[in-house]
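re: ur msg from earlier - yeah i can do the nicotinamide-adenine-dinucleotide complex, just paste it... oh wait u already did. ok heres what im feeding in:
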Amino acid sequence: MDFLQELGIRKKNFGAATGIEWTETTDQGELNIVSPVDGRHIASVYLASKQDYEKVVARAEKAFGQWREVPAPKRGEVVRQFGLQLRKYKEALGSLVSYEMGKSLQEGRGEVQEMIDICDFAVGQSRQLYGSTMVSEREQHRMYDQYHPLGVVGIISAFNFPVAVWSWNAMLAAVCGDASLWKPSTRVPLCAIAVQNILAETIRRNSLPEGLFSLVIGRGSQVGEMMLNDRRLPLISITGSTEVGRHGARQVAGRFGRTILELGGNNAIILTPDADLKMALPAIVFGAVGTAGQRCTSTRRLIIHEAIYARVRKALVKAYGGLRIGNPLDERNHVGPLIDTGAVEAFQQALRRVRQEGGRVICGGEVLTGKGYASGCYVRPAVVEAENHYAIVQEETFAPILYLIRYRGEVDEAISLHNDVVQGLSSAIFTENLREAEIFLSAVGSDCGIANVNIGTSGAEIGGAFGGEKETGGGRESGSDAWKAYMRRQTNTINYGRSLPLAQGIRFDI
Ligand SMILES: NC(=O)c1ccc[n+]([C@@H]2O[C@H](COP(=O)([O-])OP(=O)(O)OC[C@H]3O[C@@H](n4cnc5c(N)ncnc54)[C@H](O)[C@@H]3O)[C@@H](O)[C@H]2O)c1
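and the outut:
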């Protein structure tokens, strides 16, 4: 495991950093990080204390005070250099993502590539923090809006994207003039420590203030709660389950803070009779089994027209039969492990529930044992015939279960099944029929934040705004104008005349 050394991961690691400096608390207990790949202990991490948290936030506030005055293109230059560092460590960090979280090495590398891409994007953005100029109704007045840095941004991230989600937030926050404070998932803290170590060289070379990029490793119920209730953090970006997001949104709203919520999905692909099945099949299988079904954009429901149902079902069973399940660092394997044995239990429980509701598991569903599966986290992805209204189908089970759902009439019927869930993240239709595609994308079509034609649900480019509607939370991150969430908007009106006309023509003579 040379990559551990290359990334500065020790046997025991401290859990809080303000940049280059780490706090050395050891009395709060430690997290023992075990790889889902082989069940081996990788390293441990000391949990941060309340005092550590206080120290980090105080440094972050101070750093923000300095950083907001640095011209945005110069802030972009720092992000550019960090992107170069990431390129150097892509292979090592991609391997750690794969080993600590369990996704395939390809996807681990892909995640680091996503970090590099958002750095490049943020560099460009640093010269484009535009406001608008409006015409004033009053003579000799000028009106415009501008965007100012916001403060210290709290980033709470999920286990399944241990590094990319932080960069989507932190790199945009940095060019916007904000400091950031990251609480990663306690299931994948080593990836966060590695990122902090990679950052160190850029921090050193540019003499950046301590506190600009901070890390606090602790439980959601402790460090997470402190962040939610901390008025010094004007924005909290939460990526995680709808349950955590619902709670977080309430807490932060209670102090009139802002949130970006990136929560659970229940994503579907519609296959109409006009679908090109050669294209659709790999998109469906990758979407359903990639990252072992643990992406927020994983394909969970397949809504198939009855005219092609039997053909699709048969092709899927065949494709699933050929899936290679095993060590994700071996590039020949398609599917790695689930994150832990709790996730395996949730997978089995979901299959029990769907059977009770009348569903039929047509392939997969087993927990794998024996050589190569010692961690107990490997399962065979399942395909299940089900109906959309089943309670279990309405939920997000974070595991590789694909529900096949049949529709009979026009595309409207498929869309109404598609939208009939509480989540609204990613969606797709496969069709060669222009009418069907346009209806799917129209105001009466998909109600999700992401809607694709002839592309699966899983995997997005950083250039677009990423996020979803309904119980997915409504947040947007990454590309397009998502940067605006990290800044405060101010409307300015300047009177360059010699009189004081009031708006709406109101007269007030003294
Ligand atoms: N929409 C998206 O962009 C997106 C992306 C990735 C993952 N997700 C979702 O994340 C979930 C899987 O990730 P997970 O199992 O790590 O999610 P989770 O909700 O268990 O944890 C997410 C984060 O919240 C923290 N947390 C837990 N309790 C908290 C509290 N009381 N206060 C503050 N923070 C708290 C956790 O420590 C972790 O860092 C899935 O539902 C998935 O769909 C969504």
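cool cool. The chain has a mean pLDDT of 98. ping me if u need the other ligands too
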